[in-house]
Amino acid sequence: MATDLNKRKLINYRGIISFELPEDWIEEYDDNNGGAFYEDLPNSGTLRVRLISIKVPQSSNNIYATDVLNDFSSNKESKAILLTNKNAYNMFYEQVKENEIDITVYYWSLVQSIQYNKTRLANFSYTILTEELDKKHIKLEIDFLTSQIENAIFEPLYTDIS
Questions:
Q1: 18 in Cβ contact with 112 (< 8 Å)
Q2: How would DSSP label each residue in the chain?
Q3: Which own/partner contact pairs does 56-60 have at CB distance under 8 Å and 24+ positions apart?
Q4: How far apart are CA 140 and CA 91, in angstroms?
Q5: Domains in the chain, ordered, with CATH?
Q6: What pTM was computed for the model?
């Protein structure tokens, strides 16, 4: 049975970024690997979240959120855009084989500039079996995640996450 995307819970990840996920998704947290969120069903996808603080030397010029994303993105064809909330954003996906199984990984990144030389980077990834992509509820789930990530809110107070 597919998740009801209208029943949501607020995730305040590490007190730094907030976003909504389906209320029946399981949450797992690990200091080394970030957070993992998934529906407790066979072949369900897994959303992962990691946070990074970036600080450049004070002698450097101002850093811009879109430049940070363009520099850090592993997919150089995916260019960062500036959202209306002033966060930089990019999204792309790749299809790979893992242990002879075809999987698709969606990547979303958000960057918030918090001072002229500091930014916070939130990386999200969603891994799903490629064979599941044709299912309507999976397409809706990916659209839902995209919307939630684009509208995620960085908390106003800076917390060092390094």
A1: no
A2: ----TTSEEEEEETTTEEEEEETT-EEEEETTTEEEEE-SSTT--EEEEEEEEEE--TTSPP--HHHHHHHH-S-TTS--EE-TTS-EEEEEEEEEEETTEEEEEEEEEEEEEEETTEEEEEEEEEEEEGGGTTSHHHHHHHHHHHHHHHT-EE-SS-----
A3: 56/117, 56/118, 57/117, 58/117, 60/117
A4: 16
A5: 8-124+139-154 (3.40.1000)
A6: 0.84
Token couple for 110: 């958000």
Name beta bridge partners: 113. Answer: 119
Amino acid letter at 154?
F
What is the CA 103 to chain-centroid distance, rounded? 18
Task: Report pLDDT digits (tens) over 153-162.
Answer: 998 755 455 5
Tell me: pLDDT of 44 over 80: yes
Q: Tens digits of per-residue pLDDT, 78-87?
A: 778 888 888 8
